[in-house]
Amino acid sequence: MGLVDIARLISEKDNIAVVTHVAPDGDAVGCTLAMVEGLRSFGKKAVVISRDRAPDNLTFLNLYEEYTGTSPKIPKESGLLIALDCGNLDRLSLDLDSVGTVPVINIDHHLSNDMYGVENHVDTKASATAEIVYRLLKLMGVTITKGIAESLYAGIVADCGSFSFESTTGETHIIAKELMETGIDFSMIHRVLFKTRDFARLKLMGKGLQSLEERMDGFVTFMYLNAEDFNSLSISDRDSGDIVNYGLESKTCDVSVLLKEAEGFYRVSIRTKSLLDARAICEAFGGGGHVRAAGGNIKAVDVEDAKRQILAIIERMLPDGRSD
């Protein structure tokens, strides 16, 4: 369904709930808060639905205080649920039983989207769902205030790696330009998202880098964080996604893998440079994501078993049969 039709459906509802995926990242939070603020400016009663808290590096965003992680149920008066940046129904950060008969509009940019809404708009060419939300709000006639612009800009730069990922397009830059013209402090947003970390996270990064190793003649790098690494620093294993990017800085590396110990499985984050599709690697063990950034959970008896499984997937995808 096109955005014009979605804008029409939204105009027919007065009470609207907005949700995104579990463990929300910058794009998820940014587009959700921008959508809620935009809907309210349009005269709608809009609420954030989430069982997860927003990352604490996004406290500068308008309405951040509403992203508490304590509102997993859709209010009974809601006539519409807008699901943003989430590829399938099971990953929505809410109590699924509360959806009931509420119609779901699914807006996303992931190629692996299940089209689970009664109406779906999935634009895989968008660098971030925040791009799509920007276009939708403009279609609705919403004035893009400085507050809305900050949320959208944060969402875009978070998901396109500060304009460094291949998903970045000319339109990404055009939208960024228009958002900057509202007077946002774009330099602060980049600094907070990419150059500022809590001391505990810096220590965690050090632990990850200490575990760095090469496989397949340097084509693949692995990092590993165990439960004690997180416990000793009193930090969640969700607060470590960007560590995987450092493995990709090796000259010979095309695939960087971060493994994090969980209960009975390992969380996997994968980044790739150019030859292999990170999403395809992760889909092989039930995960998903983007071409250059993806993740998922893998069942393994120990961390070496997890590495062997991932290496076997990578080797199958390489035409030249490269191996250790």
TrEMBL record:
Keywords: Hydrolase
Pfam families: DHH, DHHA1
Keyword tRNA processing: no
GO molecular function, one term: 3'(2'),5'-bisphosphate nucleotidase activity
Residue span, DHHA1 domain: 235-315
EC number: 3.1.13.3, 3.1.3.7
InterPro entries in UniProt: DDH_dom, DHH_sf, DHHA1_dom, Oligoribo/pAp-PDE_c-di-AMP_PDE
Keyword RNA-binding part of the UniProt annotation: no
Domain DDH: 15-156
UniProt-recorded name of the protein: Phosphoesterase RecJ-like protein
The species this protein was found in: Youngiibacter multivorans
